[in-house]
Amino acid sequence: MSDWHSSINIATLLTLEDVQKPELLADPDHETPLLKLAADTHAKGYDALCVPLTTERWRTRWREMCLIATGEDRDTATVAAERRAEEWREKPAFLLDEVTLTRLDEAANVIAVVSDWLELDSEDDWLRHDFEIALQQELAYATYLNIGTAILPPPRNRAHAASYGRAIGAALAANPALHLSLRLPIYDPAVFQAQAGKPPASPAPVSVPGSPSPATFSPSRASVSSVGSSVARAPEGDLNGNWEMWDVIRSVCDYHPHLSLTLDLTPPLPSGAGILDRWAAEPLRHVFLPSSAFIANAKGYPVLPKGTQSFIRDIIKASTSRSLFRPAIVLGGVAGAGAHARGGEGAYLQYVRHLEKTSPAIVAQNTPGTVEHYAYGYQDYLQSPLQPLMDNLQSLTYQTFEKDPVKYRNYEEAVFKALVDWPAAEHVTICVAGAGRGPLVARCLTAADRARRKVVLYAVEKNPNAYVTLQHRNATEWEERVKLFYGDMRAVELPAQVDILVSELLGSFGDNELSPECLDGAQRFLQPNGISIPASYTSWLAPLSSSKLHNEARRGNDVKAVETTYVVMFKAVKILSGAGPGAGKRCGGAIQECWEFEHPRRDVPLDARGLPLTNSHNVRSKTLNFHIPHAGVLHGFAGYFEAVLYGDIGLSIHPERMDAVSKDMLSWFPLFIPIKDPLYLPSNSELQVSIWRLTNKRQVWYEWYAESFMPVSYTTASVEKDASPALPRMPLPRFPSIDSRGSLLTSSQSTPVVAASPLVDAVDVFPFDRRAGSPSPRFVTREELGAEDGARGEGVVKIGQTALHNPGGRSCWIGLM
Ligand SMILES: C[S@@+](CC[C@H](N)C(=O)[O-])C[C@H]1O[C@@H](n2cnc3c(N)ncnc32)[C@H](O)[C@@H]1O
């Protein structure tokens, strides 16, 4: 293993108590208490420190100005306070003792913690207004001190999440250099109290400014023993609440690239992989880990419970990526002795470093020859797919391909098996179409030696530069055993027909480097019962959520960039679809097949030279239905391929099958097919995705579009008769109801709709048409259903759709010339 290098930053969270310690104030060796603290934390091995920006004095003054009684009996003190408040609103400014940091050098390596009593989502309009002014004042001061990141207080009130988001959006616009990180527990811990029979926590409590915050993030040193032990399990819907608030806020901020998350792990982590995965797909900047999240091991040293450990390891994995966000760990409540019997403060830091050092992802990344080592730096990094037909690849690109230990091995095996199966004859003729620098040519020769078959080998290549390498290898390695042809396989002529046609023109989505079109041109080389390697390839699709990839695609502010496909090694990506068929039994698996291409294809009309008359036979379209078990935001689709080379030998990047077919293959990262505007999908919704492969004489391109639906139970209720006689006769659906925490109520709990709504009626209820065997929605009337009043059924209500992406190939296409 090469030298290990740390890739995560670790910060410590200081409290007001920490920064105002009397002994610090008296220290003669340092110019200011903060400089001493900074030097100490650096010496202990931290990379940064989180410091509250304001003191108690500021909160007191703000309350005295802004929390005043309104009404008739205003005394002179109230009038004076109102006046002071107005003066402050006009020119917001701090007094010296209201801030913790006063000098530029004190603020180096500091992450500012914004006053957590600022309730930007308060129920009270006026308070919200004053909190926003106070926020702007703090952030302007942080900008003045050249602070790079400020951590915002957690949103608490779902009803005003949009107000919170609007205020943050305005703050981002006013402080363009500042990163804002929204502090949020993974879920609202109050749901567990509700589980234990206590009153439900919804709607979220609105705290009086200045009262203890209902949210977490106080670096508590207490309750170590109970943490990580048995806790009630919250239902899925309850766990969606905080994520939904985040989703509203970042959407209102239009996915601002400077807005990120600080996940607060103070409450013990909920179980359920789906819940945790979702956060890994979000732009995490910090993970707050208080000493209370640690448990004591047998010797009394702090360690993390298993669930938290694996979550932190996932975070560490994400921090090895070169994309926008590299989450840092913020340790809280560890200053001084910490909260555990043994080890002191250093034990927490050492433990997190130990987790990092022993993380399989980090170990693999630092070990040459592993996929992780090869892929280092490519995670979540958007690359344009290659266009080997239109462009001439560089030698360096070929060299990268050739490092793949699996692809060439499988090709050799496929050629070997084909040769073994080929009837004994004097010799077998093989053509490698698109030979590049010759690795498949070399493998064909080895396969022939292994199979003890005499072969005549042709190699065709249209890249003039790679053709030089082929000539060199033929002269120096292959003893001129290979007959080389320079030119496009759709145009060159070979001296004789061949028995086996070998090619590798595959893209991440199978056909997206125009293998079908190129092989159409090369098929005339094959004798009538000849073999094509590959024999076929299929494209696969799955809906995904990744605000990281969404942000990356939008980075250049170019509308074309969000309807262009990319090749990406996925890291902070969550596949949204579940394996099950969903409530309506309409959906396929989590990853579904789009289409297939087979070679050779014998049913296409050809011209005199043996070339297809048109490219119509390579047009494809597919509509797929996905079940979405957990609420999430659709940012696009993952595209994969699987190829059959020969017999049971193949290549696959399908996540569920790649290990069985071509484990450790490096050549292809998945395709990312983005959507312009994120689409929110509730728990248990259904997503219908349409994708087309289209072509004209010069180009091939994809277009894509999606619609979302909610399964519902409906009843043809007699209520209809009570409504206006002018109302059309429509089946009356029962809306699915979303409770205050975003979970879908079951049909028996849902509210009946009592009048026909134009929206609902327009896209109303349809049954799954089993007779036609089609998984697609079909709209029917009650008469068609033959349903009586009061009859019940299952259907769906449409809830959203995307735009049609890339119409006519306006943003992204693959050149045929
Ligand atoms: C993906 S590379 C594979 C190269 C090599 N066979 C390998 O596996 O490393 C595809 C190669 O096919 C060549 N190619 C693509 N389209 C072609 C065409 N129509 N005629 C001839 N060569 C083509 C490209 O120049 C490139 O060298």
UniProtKB/TrEMBL annotation:
Annotated catalytic residues: E504 (proton donor/acceptor), E513 (proton donor/acceptor)
A GO term, aspect molecular function: protein-arginine N-methyltransferase activity
InterPro entries in UniProt: Arg_MeTrfase, Arg_MeTrfase_PRMT5, PRMT5, PRMT5_C, PRMT5_TIM, SAM-dependent_MTases_sf
Domain PRMT5 TIM barrel as annotated: residue spans: 45-357
SUPFAM superfamilies in UniProt: S-adenosyl-L-methionine-dependent methyltransferases
Key words of the record: Methyltransferase, S-adenosyl-L-methionine, Transferase
Residue(s) at site: Critical for specifying symmetric addition of methyl groups: F401
Gene3D superfamilies: Divalent-metal-dependent TIM barrel enzymes, Hnrnp arginine n-methyltransferase1, Vaccinia Virus protein VP39
Species per Swiss-Prot/TrEMBL record: Punctularia strigosozonata (strain HHB-11173) (White-rot fungus)
One matching Pfam family: PRMT5_C
Region annotated Disordered, chain positions: 198-221
Sequence similarity: Belongs to the class I-like SAM-binding methyltransferase superfamily.
Residue positions binding S-adenosyl-L-methionine: Y398, K407, Y408, E461, D488, M489
Highest taxon above the source species: Eukaryota
Alphabetical GO biological process terms: methylation; regulation of DNA-templated transcription
Name of this chain's protein: Protein arginine N-methyltransferase
PRMT5 arginine-N-methyltransferase domain boundaries: 372-533
PROSITE patterns, per the entry: SAM_MT_PRMT
PRMT5 oligomerisation domain sequence ranges: 536-814
One annotated Gene Ontology cellular component of this protein: cytosol
